[in-house]
Write a structure and sequence with these properties.
The protein is an alpha/beta fold and 226 residues long. 31% of the residues lie in helices and 18% in strands. The protein is globular and about 40 Å long. The structure holds D-xylitol-5-phosphate and zinc ion (ZN).
């Protein structure tokens, strides 16, 4: 029988209060976050600009949790060393953003980081078939990347299932991450579909509850997964 992987929650700081970032991160840490997810946007690969290695380095000083760096940037090879040096533990690049994905993944691993690949909603699971054995993490985007607080694209549930099947065969130890529009009402579904690392932005950092209370609510709904 296949053993179920432990489900990890990875709060994205994109909707956090940057004026009180250290407190927000400490609150997520105390609330049981497993990673801190950092969304790096360059205004080119995605229509938004967020932050770069300087902020990752600052966050490194605020928590001992693994830093899960999601690079939404064109030609990421140019900056891998900077993000590794800033303290990234996991670096995820988009397959659509690099010409030589295999080389990019080798670079990430050589820098001592775990290597991940993200797929936009329009990209087929087959696009990364050949590199699956090199990966520590696959990220199936469940919104088009660029902004927090977007609506989950329902057809991605079937894609998560297809990716999970492929990963069982080719990289059974790698994590399957999902990112975008995950909230208490759909978290059990994405986990049932095969995801085990769940990025949660606006459902953790919002004005409805504290990060700890919001994480507890997500965990409670996770119990509904089979
Ligand atoms: C989207 C980012 C996500 C996003 C998640 O481009 O990669 O990490 O901030 O935020 P929510 O959970 O609010 O969709
Ligand atoms: Zn992300």
């Amino acid at each position: 029988m296949k053993t179920k992987k432990i489900v990890k929650l990875a709060p994205s700081i994109l909707t956090a209060d940057f004026g009180h970032l250290a407190e927000q991160i400490a609150a997520a840490d105390r609330g049981g976050a497993d990673y801190i997810h950092l969304d790096v946007m360059d205004g080119c690969f995605v229509p938004n600009i967020s932050f770069g290695p300087l902020l990752v380095k600052a966050v490194r000083g605020m928590t001992t949790l693994p830093l899960d760096v999601h690079l939404m940037i064109t030609d990421p090879d140019r900056y891998l060393q900077d993000f590794a040096g800033a303290g990234a533990d996991i670096i995820t690049v988009h397959t659509e953003a690099t010409l030589h994905l295999h080389r990019t993944l080798q670079l990430i691993t050589a820098l001592g980081c775990k290597a991940g690949v993200a797929l936009n909603p329009a990209t087929s699971v087959e696009a990364i078939h050949e590199v699956l054995p090199l990966l520590d993490q696959v990220l199936v985007m469940t919104v088009n990347p660029g902004f927090g607080s977007q609506r989950f694209i329902e057809t991605m549930t079937a894609k998560i299932r297809r990716m999970a099947r492929l990963m069982d065969e080719l990289c059974p130890l790698a994590d399957l991450q999902v990112d975008g529009g995950i909230h208490p009402d759909n978290i059990a579904d994405v986990v049932d579909s095969g995801a085990n690392v769940i990025v949660v932005g606006s459902s953790v950092f919002n004005d409805k509850g504290t990060p700890a209370a919001n994480l507890a609510l997500l965990r409670e709904h996770l119990l509904e997964s089979v």
